[in-house]
Amino acid sequence: MIEEIVVSEDDDASEIAFMKLEFLKLDSLPWLTGFCNGNLLFKFPLLIRLFVIECPMMETFSQGILSATLLRRVHASVEGDEWHWDGDLNTTVTKKFSKSNSKEV
Prior knowledge:
Elements: E1 15-17, E2 23-27, E3 41-43, E4 49-53, E5 66-67, E6 74-77, E7 81-84, H1 89-104
Parallel strand pairs: 1-3, 2-4, 3-5, 4-6
Antiparallel strand pairs: 6-7
């Protein structure tokens, strides 16, 4: 029943940094719509691998600003198991998952 990983109830932009995170796997979360639907600044300075698997309701990674300078691809199980990259993390997740959501409607 998880809809987002980080919940933000404050409208003021805050910063959250995951300084040591290199690998993130979001797997089998059928109700997940995003990592965070609030207006937070996320920093992932060491993130190099992101997997989003079996998250059919995913719409975007975050509504806020993201910094993941080392990340250059996202593994998404939308159209088979493939690596994707469309310039940045939010754009990549939005393009890959909004397409799959619209196909199911």
